[in-house]
Automatic annotation (TrEMBL):
Swiss-Prot/TrEMBL catalytic activity: an N-acetyl-alpha-D-glucosaminyl-diphospho-di-trans,poly-cis-dolichol + UDP-N-acetyl-alpha-D-glucosamine = an N,N'-diacetylchitobiosyl-diphospho-di-trans,poly-cis-dolichol + UDP + H(+)
Residue ranges of every copy of the Glycosyl transferase family 28 C-terminal domain listed in the record: 103-161
Lineage: Eukaryota, Fungi, Dikarya, Ascomycota, Pezizomycotina
Oxidoreductase found in the keyword field: no
UniProt keyword list: Endoplasmic reticulum, Glycosyltransferase, Transferase
GO molecular function, one term: N-acetylglucosaminyldiphosphodolichol N-acetylglucosaminyltransferase activity
PANTHER family hit by this protein: UDP-N-ACETYLGLUCOSAMINE TRANSFERASE SUBUNIT ALG13 (PTHR47043)
Gene name of the encoded protein: ALG13
EC number: 2.4.1.141
Principal place of residence: endoplasmic reticulum
Function: Involved in protein N-glycosylation. Essential for the second step of the dolichol-linked oligosaccharide pathway.
Record organism: Talaromyces atroroseus
Gene Ontology CC annotations of this record: UDP-N-acetylglucosamine transferase complex
Protein name: UDP-N-acetylglucosamine transferase subunit ALG13
Length: 200
């Protein structure tokens, strides 16, 4: 029996403000089971400056063949000076690497959101309620209202996996039929790059 293609969920907690609640939620059985249900094979987590203890405790309590991992390869790291582009790109479909399109789940920092939108895979954005003000929640709701991403909620992240799969289906028919011009040929990712002046 052939191995199924790799399908990656990449999670970024952020590099500055701690977001231990998000880390605990992505290691929760409900979220891991939802990933398995939707045929994910790998969970890659950037756990930030203060999340290592939570991640290490999970790894100790759930060794590689443990049922608590729901068949997922689970890996993590703290901080990468060079950024997260390589990890985000691991969620893209690549026939040569036998990968199918996965998803990115991100804290609601604007820099991470913009970088993730460029990748062109389903994005779930989770605001940090511990931060002052509600600007992250407003940003998450706004990008969800525009159909660019899913606004995730702590303690309901399993629901976000299904919503991300629905967003994937909708993105296949984006942009709307009445839009014109070749600038949309790469879908939303192309528009983000055009608007922000990104060049590869």
């Amino acid at each position: 029996m052939a191995n199924k293609p790799q399908k990656v969920c990449f999670v970024t907690i952020g590099a500055t403000a701690p977001f231990d609640t998000l880390l605990s939620n992505v290691l929760d059985s409900d979220f891991l089971e939802a990933l398995k249900t939707h045929e994910y094979t790998k969970l890659l987590i950037q756990y930030g400056k203060e999340g290592r203890a939570i991640f290490d405790t999970f790894i100790q309590n759930a060794p590689p063949e443990s049922p608590a991992r729901y068949g997922l390869v689970i890996q993590g790291f703290g901080f990468r000076q060079e950024g997260l582009l390589q990890e985000m790109r691991s969620t893209q479909s690549n026939k040569a690497l036998d990968t199918v399109e996965g998803m990115i789940l991100s804290h609601a920092g604007s820099g991470s959101i913009m970088e993730a939108l460029r990748i062109g895979v389903p994005l779930v954005v989770v605001p940090n309620p511990a931060l002052q003000g509600n600007h992250q929640e407003e940003l998450a709701k706004e990008i969800e209202n525009n159909g660019w991403a899913v606004a995730g909620q702590l303690n309901r992240l399993a629901d976000s996996v299904q919503k991300a799969e629905s967003l994937r289906s909708l993105s296949r028919i984006w942009p709307p039929k009445d839009s014109v011009g070749s600038r949309h040929k790469r879908g939303l990712a192309g528009v983000v790059e055009d608007e922000l002046g990104f060049l590869d």
